[in-house]
Design goal:
Nucleotidyltransferase, domain 5, 3 domains, five-stranded mixed beta sheet, 395 residues, elongated, alpha/beta
């Protein structure tokens, strides 16, 4: 059963309305009925009946511009579009004349002269608009389904903006640092840097390029070297972290590792690791381009020495308050700077077994010897890079 339009309902009652001329009571009943049936306003009932009474029945009313490109023209355009392998409207407009000529030459053009003439005179904008309509009707031609849509994954991995002041150990920020020199072109070494938000425990690792598998392998090494369980990773929105490879690894971990991300283009969401990128990676490794694969194990050996030095012997002073007074900020810091090792020892949510293990490691270390070994490894790393440059130059 088809629903009648409002105009059809009014047309059925117009004879009763005209017969009731001068009878206010009868017309009031008709008006209330029309309001109930059509849900229109009572003041529009009389106007609608008058419009129907004055309408000329000899022709159908049509509003707007007359149709120029009819169905025959659309059929001709669709024929060219299919022959052009469903090209976009901009590209199709440039092909129409050639395609029509070739199809007509080979007896494959079945459209009349009028439709052909209109097609050849069609503007680029009109072609684009009509091709978009074709694409909407044939949605399957636009694109297939994907099970690894990056946009869908970014909705799955939530944005976390803080606060970071009361998080437990094991919830840290992670970022990559490019050792590319002055150019991002080609292959080179990247550092993956992890900084724990609660204790400032820092663990950097080196890898070749920043592929998904290489980044996940670096994170797995970071997890093994972390003295307490890894509970959460908080990277930026870069593709080396926001991918299904890392997401599945975090979900399959026992217990699962939470994966959050910072808001795009908001570096301060990762303030701890961004600070460590400069104070650790850039300070001890530098800005020079490292593009020799042999450097990766040497740089990781340097990081294996640098991490104990930073975590046991390098104090960090945490900012505890920031207030804005007028046009400037007033920052309040801890009275005494603490090393990450000392921060672990005063935490009540870290087991005594972990603390005792760190105490034994601390008694076997010498910061001066660690610094000497760091300098030696850094020299070896740059000697390899220099030899690589010389080989390229003599080529």
């Amino acid at each position: 059963m088809t629903m009648k339009t409002k105009e059809e309902i009014f047309a059925e009652h117009i004879s009763d309305w005209l017969k009731a001329k001068g009878d206010k009571k009868k017309r009031g009943e008709i008006a209330r009925h029309m309001v109930y049936v059509t849900t229109c306003h009572k003041k529009s009932v009389a106007r609608t009946f008058k419009r129907l009474q004055l309408r000329d029945k000899t022709h159908e009313e049509r509003r707007g511009r007359p149709t120029y490109y009819d169905k025959a023209t659309d059929a001709a355009l669709r024929n060219v579009w299919e022959a052009a392998d469903y090209a976009c409207g901009i590209l199709l407009h440039a092909m129409i004349r050639d395609y029509a000529a070739v199809l007509d030459r080979d007896g494959m053009w079945t459209h009349g002269d009028e439709a052909t003439g209109k097609l050849l005179a069609m503007s680029e904008r009109t072609v684009r608009r009509r091709v978009e309509k074709f694409r909407a009707e044939n949605g399957k031609l636009r694109k297939g389904r994907s099970g690894t849509s990056p946009s869908a994954l970014k909705h799955i991995i939530p944005i976390f903006k803080g606060p970071w002041t009361d998080v437990s150990p094991g919830r840290g920020q992670i970022d990559t640092v490019a050792h590319c020199g002055e150019s991002l072109a080609g292959s080179f070494i990247w550092s993956v840097n992890y900084t724990d938000a609660a204790t400032y425990w820092c663990i950097p690792r080196a890898q070749w390029n920043k592929g998904e598998e290489a980044t996940r392998a670096s994170i797995q090494e970071i997890e093994q070297k972390l003295p307490f369980p890894l509970l959460e990773l908080h990277p930026d929105s870069g593709g080396e972290f926001v991918n299904w490879h890392l997401k599945r690894w975090c979900d399959a971990h026992d217990p699962p590792i939470a994966l959050t991300r910072s808001e795009p283009y908001k570096k301060n969401d990762n303030m701890y690791v961004e600070e460590r990128n400069g104070h650790v990676v850039r300070r001890y490794v530098g800005w020079e381009r490292l593009d020799d694969l042999e450097i990766v194990p040497v740089l990781n050996e340097l990081y294996d020495t640098l991490a104990p030095y930073l975590n046991h012997w390098k104090p960090v002073r945490r900012m505890i308050e920031k207030k804005r007074i007028g046009a400037r900020y007033v920052r309040t810091y801890e009275k005494r700077a603490l090393t990450p090792y000392e921060r672990v020892l005063v935490r009540g949510d870290i087991t005594e077994e972990i603390k005792e293990k760190l105490r034994k490691e601390h008694t076997t270390q010498n910061p001066l010897l660690l610094l000497g070994k760091i300098a030696t490894l850094k020299k070896r790393m740059y000697d390899i890079q220099k030899a690589s440059r010389n080989r390229e130059a003599t080529g």
